[in-house]
Amino acid sequence: MIHPLKITSTLADETRYSIYEYILQHQKPVTVQHIADTFHIHPNVARLHLTKLTEIAVIKAEFEKTGKGGRPGRIYSASDTGVSLSFPRQDFHHLVTWLFALLKKLGPEAVEACKEIAYANGKENIEKMLSLSLRVTTFEQRVEILTDSASLIGYAVNIETTEQGRTLYFSYYNCPYRSMLAEEGPLICALHEAYLQGQLEALFDVSDFTQISSMQRNCENCLYAIKVRD
User: Fold this and answer.
1) Which domains does the chain have, with CATH numbers?
2) Which tens digits make up the pLDDT trace of 124-140?
3) Comparing C-alpha atoms, which of 52, 51, 33, 53 is closest to residue 43?
4) Cβ atoms 159, 86 nearer than 8 A
């Protein structure tokens, strides 16, 4: 087990944390030179940052054979398992497993009730952020609040404006429930989508909510397209 102080001290470096976020969001293996070029740092410094992140298991390192002979190159990518911190130590995995088993045992009505709770929680969280902000009137201000909230759980928000209106694209690479998707994927996604819908409808007049890709279907990310009215 990795000591919590080692994790926090490693991620305390601003550049190192930015590199970690970059790898998470792009979800493609990177090399030392790629990180050096992207962050305008010396390759030796980039290698040090990547090594430190590997030591706390938030990214992983592998050797890539180029087919050209010589020594294989090392590539880095986001870890599939992730790392969590709690003080004192807490383990919610068993609790979540029991609750999912209970939901399935109680049947569809219990699942629908849980989706309503997730929706209300998402809406409540945004309303709290609105209450702490200055007057929010413009579309751009609402998008900024949504972006701040989304970034806390790994979403990246993009906006496309067409003649038919505005569409928000949510891309999500770092699912906090990835380890349970194989067993509970449909239920997890249903609850997560209800939470997201609650957040969106606290800010916008939503006309359409569509999932384009899903890690549950072995896509590299989850992607949603949400059409909103001004």
Assistant:
1) 4-78 (1.10.10.10), 105-229 (3.30.1380.20)
2) 999 988 888 777 778 88
3) 33
4) no
